[in-house]
Design goal:
The chain is of the alpha+beta class and 153 residues long. The chain is 33% helix and 16% strand. The protein is elongated.
């Protein structure tokens, strides 16, 4: 996806808020380079939302919209004094209703160094570190694992 300016992101969030939540978003959206493993963050004290720029750089617009819906669920539930945390039923129901992303996309900042594969069922296991294949086996069928790809970093 192309680079997006913060004012464009602000307009997008305001539009999604009106379209899916039937309520305005009256606070600020910013890009936060320091976010590493999350797609976004809702700030309780200021009611602002921060978005990880890697979501915009590495994924399509659908993923960005899913992350925005997720953060807006936190926002609107918190503003209305309802259960805004991930574990709350209110949050889970609203997230499902607006079709937001439950989790951030995998490997936002993860560097996969080794990929193991089961000899029997061919299930793959991407890993950041080497594992001892004498001690670990496939979680699917119990087969032996072998290295199929190794990156040097």
């Amino acid at each position: 996806m192309r680079k997006i300016k913060e004012y464009e992101l602000q307009k997008l969030v305001e539009k999604i808020s009106c379209d899916y939540f039937n309520a305005p978003f009256n606070h600020t959206v910013t890009l936060n380079q320091r976010l590493r493993t999350t797609g976004g963050r809702y700030l309780l004290a200021s009611h602002n939302i921060e978005i990880n720029p890697k979501i915009i750089e590495n994924y399509d617009k659908g993923v960005l919209i899913g992350v925005i819906k997720h953060e807006l669920c936190h926002y609107h539930l918190h503003i209305n004094h309802k259960g805004y945390q991930h574990r709350n039923t209110d949050f889970k129901l609203l997230l499902k209703k607006v079709n937001g992303l439950r989790y951030a996309p995998a490997t936002l900042n993860t560097k996969i160094k080794v990929v193991y594969e089961c000899i029997k069922c061919k299930k793959q296991y991407p890993r950041r570190r080497h594992i001892n294949t004498d001690h670990y086996c496939c979680s699917n069928c119990g087969g032996k694992l072998k290295i199929i790809q190794e990156h040097s970093n």
